[in-house]
Design a protein that fits this description.
The complex is a heterotrimer of chains A (338), B (311) and C (344). Chain A has 14 helices and no strands. By secondary structure, chain A is mainly α. In chain A, helix 1 packs antiparallel against helix 13 and helix 11 packs antiparallel against helix 13. Chain A is globular. Chain B has one domain: Orthogonal Bundle (MetI-like fold), CATH 1.10.3720. Chain C has 344 residues and is an alpha/beta fold. Classes of the chains: A mainly alpha (338), B mainly alpha (311), C alpha/beta (344). Chains in contact: A-B, A-C, B-C. At the A-B interface, helix 1, helix 7, helix 9, helix 11 and helix 12 of A face helix 4, helix 5, helix 8, helix 9 and helix 10 of B.
Chain lengths: 338, 311, 344
């Protein structure tokens, strides 16, 4: 029964993946100028350009090009990076763990702060913590990620000297641990090098806090609103009238129900985070897929950028699917409406 | 006297007139109630008033900024490079000796201009599409919803990056990209409104009395969808500014030496870790202020048009 | 019913108000109510008369904006209005049970009903438990069996959305009675249920009440329903308790003008629709500071200046108490036939 539901959700995600592929194809064909001329080089003759065009298959009808594109995708061929000469897919996969590390640690941190904040704001309306929550939710969505990152770097690195220099994942003094998960902190511990793990952890702090600050607002806002609604619901009244303890009422009855809409918010939150991770990676020189794309962009190297957009699109669809499945698992009512 | 929850005190808020434009009768009374309501919202929360003033200030700077700044924003002077804030240079100078204050003020026009154009385009294209989708259903709905869903299948900033990268690194394309990624919001709002009302009795009546569907959409459904759309507009403005600045920060769109808040922050990024904080801080602060203003305005608009949705 | 026995619940002069943005709502004023052990009392009145507010105040689960302005509510030697939250929480579910209307929304939608009953049992585990030998799960099943739910072993794992409205109400009753409280407050338990289910639920409540000698405060706006199942009826109007009498006596000879109006507006078998007379006027706005002493004065044909200035008091201990300066003066038309036969 559960598997059937998950399968249904998976099928539902397919049109989105199809859409992502179509859009990225459209974008690749809308290159500035004439891609054949670009690839042929500045001094090429018209003949040479035509030759390159045939070579790259750019003279074929659009539909045929689309199928070629699909075929290439199926083979895992996302093209070559002009600047590094490496296959785009390979470089993306190599850099993906760094980006995912940022996103997930930031999410955990954001939830760890936003959930209690939202709950407390809802249970103590009008108190200072409620006001704090309101300020956070209003100010949080106004913060430009790059600015927050820079500000944090300025205050905690330059002024206070607490954080290490924002130079990326690891101080140049260390070399990365042998790859097991791709997460330096974990791999460092696994390799028995706590010093390395600690250094990696320190590098993580500022970028993660920057990202977390940004998504703190929607999570806290949703938690507070949802909690307020649930606390005034009929079944919480029944629970209180049965004499259940404050803790039971709050957690087992109120919070579990209140978290349902928060989980659905997570999908949107992931979207924000994937987007802002690009900027955070630039500010803190984090070697993830985002900075890969930015570097390629600056060098007018387009294949990596296209690969990046495609990868992010698919990743986002998959993350939304994950959230969807999670929701199905925790809300027993969904089965009826499937 | 409603039999609502007996343990709660009786509701006191008067119902807000919903279709305040559609009905011809009692117009002046409704408008008076309207004016009172707006005044109530403004006076209840002084921050809203502040936001309104800030908005006015921003518009003023956008329109007249270039004429009132003390220094030429493009004039470079290597001798005074990287000076901290002083009497001559209120926000200090950047690496090329340009006055940051002037640059920040002048940038208002570009940032606001980009945001306004993008949001206007989103609105003008998204609203009709959404209304049509919600009202006609069928193929309209399928295509428009598919379009909206596909856009939302991407992390929006990434999509904007892709569009600008594909079409070329110009300001025009920044506007286009921002407009595209904002489309789904307006489509959604308009579609929801049209969906709710399409089976309403008065719509049937209008149809029966000879109004064509398009006329109904334009004259009746559109005004009704306006209030939630207005709230969306203001919030979107803030978001569009953030987007444009973010794209500029990573090198897309606006080219130096044009001043734009995102680029100004980017120009100062490398200096902040060596202590020259003013190059990034002032543009960033201005950016935050602008976005904050639009968000507060959006909240105020929501309070005016739909107090029930307050969170 | 032994008259020597002290009352189980004795409410004296209870006053309660709500502070709202548009003014202070004087929701309850000078309310007296007495419940004896094993007695089923119906609390009847229009929407807004304060009957639910009263029950919430007794349980200590009033809205945040509520303030008790005076009075006492003695229950087993303890004043419910002055007790601290801890003590009240111990009492709730264990000594005083409460059930509500809209049973499906009154149960946790994402928790199996058996677990919800177990939660209550676990909370008051230290208290009485004649079946201590059984596990919580078994006791939950037993609780469902006692409210006549068929196939309780299977139902115990069900979620509220999988059960019908009537069954949800039975579950709520099981929840409230799991720890064998001595007082049950039933706040409009049958509103929203169809007539057949209504009858079933009411029969269940009254049967259990009799079996366990459990005092029941049955709150409803349906006078006929109260007449069918209650020993005594207390009529409330605009935050005042205006009449208290055994059910039969109330219908045979209503003393308060409001009660008389209520009865003549209630359909009964054999009556004609044309004979029904609505109660004139509306409930007064309880935010007013110029409310008359007797809050029915503005709707009453017998009202005099004394009614407007001197509040009449209800004697809750009397067999038939009434809060009126001119009780018993009949209306032009006699009250409709006692609705007792309406529910065949």
């Amino acid at each position: 029964m559960m598997l059937k539901l998950i399968a249904t959700r998976l099928l539902g995600a397919l049109p989105n993946i199809a859409g992502v592929i179509v859009i990225t194809f459209v974008l690749t064909r809308a290159l500035p100028g004439d891609p054949a001329a670009y690839f042929a080089g500045g001094a090429a003759t018209q003949e040479a350009i035509e030759q390159v065009r045939r070579q790259l298959g750019l003279d074929k009808p659009l539909l045929e090009q689309f199928f070629d594109y699909l075929g290439a995708l199926a083979r895992g061929d996302l093209g070559l990076s002009l600047t590094t000469g490496q296959p785009v897919l390979q470089e993306l996969l190599q850099r993906l763990p760094a980006s995912l590390e940022l996103v997930f640690v930031a999410l955990v941190l954001a939830c760890a702060v936003a959930l209690p904040l939202g709950v407390l704001a809802a249970t103590r309306p009008g108190s200072w913590i409620d006001q704090l929550c309101r300020i956070v939710t209003t100010a949080g969505v106004s913060l430009p990620t790059f600015f927050t990152g820079l500000l944090l770097a300025y205050v905690f690195y330059f002024l206070l000297g607490w954080a290490p220099s924002p130079l990326g994942r690891l101080d140049p003094m260390f070399s990365p641990p042998p790859q097991v998960t791709g997460l330096y902190v974990v791999d460092g511990l696994l390799a028995g090098e706590p010093g390395l793990a600690w250094a990696a952890l320190k590098q993580l702090v500022l970028p993660v806090v920057t990202m977390a600050l940004f998504v703190l607002a929607p999570i806290a806002r949703m938690t507070r609103a949802s909690m307020l609604a649930v606390l005034s619901s009929d079944f919480v009244r029944t629970a209180r009238a049965s004499g259940l303890s404050q803790g039971t009422v709050l957690v087992t009855y109120a919070l579990r129900n209140a978290l349902l809409p928060v989980v659905t918010t997570l999908g949107m939150v992931f979207g924000f985070m994937l987007g802002s991770s690009v900027i955070v990676e630039k500010v803190f020189a984090w070697p993830g897929v985002g900075s890969y794309a930015i570097d390629a962009l600056t060098a007018s190297d387009y294949a990596p950028v296209q690969g990046f957009v495609l990868a992010m699109g698919i990743l986002f669809v998959l993350l939304n699917l994950l959230v969807d499945v999670l929701y199905v698992l925790i809300d027993p009512r969904v089965e009826v409406n499937a | 006297m409603s039999a609502a929850d007996p343990a709660k005190p009786p509701a006191a808020e008067p119902a807000l007139p919903g279709r305040w434009r559609a009905a011809p009768s009692g117009e002046s009374e409704r408008q008076r109630a309207w004016g009172l309501h707006v005044r109530h919202v403004l006076s209840e929360n002084p921050i809203t008033l502040l936001a309104a003033l800030m908005f006015a200030l921003l518009v003023f700077l956008a329109l007249f900024g270039p004429y009132i700044v003390p220094h030429d924003p493009l004039a470079s002077n290597a001798a005074v490079a990287l000076q901290p804030p002083s009497a001559q240079h209120w926000f200090g100078t950047d690496a090329l000796g340009r006055d940051i204050f002037s640059r920040v003020i002048v940038a208002t026009r570009l940032d606001l201009g980009i945001a306004v154009s993008a949001v206007a385009a989103s609105f003008l294209i998204g609203m009709p599409l959404g209304l049509a989708a919600g009202f006609f259903g069928g193929w309209w709905d399928r295509i428009v919803s598919r379009l909206s869903d596909t856009i939302m299948a991407f992390p929006l900033f990434v999509l904007a990056m892709g569009i600008v990268a594909a079409l070329g690194n110009t300001v025009g394309n920044i506007v286009l990209a921002t407009a595209v990624i904002n489309l789904p919001f307006y489509i959604r709002v308009a579609r929801a409104e049209a969906n709710v009302r399409r089976n309403a009795g008065w719509v049937e009546a209008a149809r029966l009395s000879g109004n064509s569907d398009w006329r109904i959409l334009a004259r009746h459904l559109f005004p009704n969808a306006l209030p939630p759309a207005m709230v969306q507009l203001s919030l979107n403005m803030g978001w569009a500014i953030l987007n444009a600045a973010g794209l500029s920060f990573i090198g897309l769109g606006v080219r130096p030496p044009d001043p734009e808040w995102g680029i100004l922050v980017a120009e100062g990024a490398q200096f902040i870790v060596s202590g020259e904080w003013w190059v990034s801080l002032f543009p960033g602060g201005m950016l935050m202020l602008a976005v904050f203003t639009f968000n507060l305005l959006g909240d105020a608009l929501r309070d005016i048009f739909d107090p029930r949705r307050r969170t | 019913m032994s008259t020597v026995q002290p009352p189980l619940l004795e409410v004296r002069n209870l006053g309660l108000e709500f502070r709202t943005r548009s003014g202070t709502v004087r929701a309850l004023e000078g309310v007296d109510l007495v419940l004896k052990k094993g007695e089923i009392v119906g609390l009847v009145g229009e929407s807004g008369s304060g009957k639910s507010v009263l029950s919430y105040a007794l349980m200590g689960i009033s809205d945040r904006a509520a303030r008790v302005t005076g009075g006492t509510a003695m229950f087993g030697g303890l004043d419910l209005l002055k007790a601290d939250e801890r003590t009240l929480a111990d009492l709730r579910g264990r000594e005083i049970g409460m059930i509500f209307q809209s049973p499906r929304t009154a149960l946790n939608p994402i928790r199996p009903v058996g677990r919800q009953i177990e939660d209550v049992l676990r909370r008051h585990a230290a208290a009485r438990g004649p079946d201590l030998g059984q596990s919580l799960k078994q006791r939950a099943v037993q609780a469902l069996r006692e409210v006549a739910i068929a196939d309780p072993e299977r139902r115990v794992k069900a979620y509220p959305f999988e059960l019908s409205g009537g069954m949800c109400q039975r579950v709520m009753i099981a929840l409230a009675l799991a720890c064998r409280p001595s007082l049950l407050i039933a706040d409009e338990p049958t509103t929203g249920l169809d007539v057949t289910t209504q009858a079933g639920v009411m029969d269940l409540i009254t049967t259990l009440a009799r079996e366990r000698e459990m005092a029941t405060l049955f709150i409803t706006h349906d006078l006929a329903l109260a007449a069918d199942h209650c020993d005594r009826i207390v009529v409330m109007h605009a935050g005042h308790a205006v009449e208290s009498a055994p059910a039969q006596a109330l219908f045979a000879a209503p003393q308060h003008p409001y009660t008389q109006r209520l009865i003549s507006s209630t359909p009964g078998r054999g009556g004609r629709i044309e004979a029904l007379q609505p109660v004139p006027g509306n409930l007064p706005d309880l935010r007013r500071s110029d409310l008359p002493a007797c809050r029915f004065a503005e709707r009453c044909t017998r009202a005099t200046d004394r009614c407007r200035s001197e509040p009449p008091r209800l004697d809750a201990t009397a067999a038939h108490g009434v809060a009126c300066w001119f009780p018993g003066e009949g209306l032009a038309t006699p009250p409709a036939t006692a609705p007792e036969a309406a529910h065949g």
